[in-house]
Each structure stands twice: as structure tokens, then as C-alpha cells.
Design brief:
This protein has 148 residues and is α+β, with helices and mostly antiparallel strands. The protein contains four helices and five strands. Helix content is 38%, strand content 18%. Residues 44-112 form the HIT domain. InterPro entries: Histidine_triad_HIT, HIT-like, HIT-like_sf.
Length: 148
């Protein structure tokens, strides 16, 4: 990775550099499981490897690779998690670095859409129990196998 495209005070850039939670590294993108505290087993985050702030910052190579990822990742995640739906979200405001959230919603889950981000805040504040990191290990192994 070319470090001249990394912003030192960017949370996403630092996570990419650290390799924390890495599931797969693409040419232009970095895929990881959401960090602790974990609100949903299988919640993945896809980050642009260079610092870019929003959809309009993508170049042609990045957008083409994103298209390929969007063709395979949701299918693999749905298969591995037995989800009925895979949500895809990108806001890029609280963390101004282009990234996408892939959130599996299972049949038994009552929350819908934006409620998952409310859940994430509740888990961070301790109002709701987090998923143990050990519970995600098997899922991460399976998604790695499925994507490679």
C-alpha cells in the first residue's frame, strides 16, 4: 500500500494500516469484520484503501473493482450467515473515509434498516450486550474460504 495516500488522523486509514480484522485485501479495497464491540455477527466493512471522502472520490479502477465485489460479497455473506437480507450502507460522515457496511439481517431479527446503527450505538454504550469476538471467528474463516 502506498502510504502517501493515507491520512494520518483518519480512523479508517489507521485500521487499514494495522490490518485489524482483515478478511480480504483487494487491489483498491480492504474488507474487515466490524470492530469490537460487535453488534451483529457478520457485519462487514469494506474500506477504500487510499484516503477518499465519499462516492465521488472513486476513480475508474476503484469503481470497477467495487462492482466486482458487489457481485460476489453479498452472495457469499448471505450464504455464510443464512441471512434473509444483506443491507448495504454508506454515509461517510462520522468517519469521512469512503466505506460500506454490509449487514446481514437474519429471519429472527426484528430490527430493520437504520435500526442496526441504533443497535451499534447501544452496544457501544453498554445498553445491549455485544457479540463475543470468539463467535465471529468461525464466520470469518468461512467467509474467507468463500471469497477466495
Amino acid at each position: 500500500m502506498n502510504h502517501k495516500y493515507i491520512k494520518n488522523n483518519c480512523e479508517s486509514c489507521q485500521r487499514i494500516l494495522s490490518g485489524a480484522g482483515k478478511i480480504k485485501e483487494y487491489k483498491c479495497w480492504f474488507l474487515e469484520h466490524v470492530g469490537e464491540p460487535i453488534p451483529v455477527n457478520g457485519w462487514l466493512v469494506l474500506r477504500l484503501k487510499r484516503h477518499g471522502e465519499g462516492l465521488v472520490s472513486m476513480n475508474k479502477e476503484e469503481s470497477e473493482e467495487l462492482g466486482q465485489i458487489l457481485n460476489s460479497l453479498p452472495k457469499a455473506l448471505k450464504e455464510v450467515t443464512n441471512a434473509t437480507q444483506i443491507y448495504l450502507c454508506s454515509f461517510n460522515e462520522s468517519v469521512p473515509h469512503l466505506h460500506f457496511h454490509f449487514i446481514p439481517r437474519r429471519a429472527e431479527e426484528k430490527r430493520r434498516t437504520i435500526d442496526f446503527f441504533i443497535l451499534q450505538n447501544e452496544v457501544k454504550s453498554g445498553k445491549v450486550s455485544a457479540i463475543a469476538a470468539s463467535e465471529t471467528a468461525s464466520l470469518i474463516r468461512n467467509i474467507k474460504i468463500r471469497l477466495n
